[in-house]
Amino acid sequence: MSLGRVAGVTDEELKVIQGNEYMNSDLLTPREKATLLWTEHVTLNTAKNRDDVYNEVAAVFSEAEIVELTTVCAFRNMRNRMHDSLHLDPDPPAGADAVGAGSQVSPDALKAYLQHLLDNWPDAFPDAPKE
Description:
mainly alpha; 6 helices; globular; disordered N terminus
């Protein structure tokens, strides 16, 4: 079985993505291209200085979708850096069963935490300092 089919993309699509030619490819949809573009710039921490990239992404994603995409990307970056720094295998052979059911976060506790965040979310954020 190929890695591409396991990941949900074809081998040809995987080759395009890995070769950084995704923006010129007819194999990917505009949303897939925008996803790759945004995740690349979030990961490299260049998104903050690239209004052109944001505008390109905003042409195919809503503001809420961009926030969600950024959150997922930031989480994956954090997870990768933690695993790399601590020399942890991100996909241990035994999988989730090795951790045990007792380590899962309670859905009710997570919902309560997220509700707390929403209830205390500020109405406005301070302007970022000009660099």
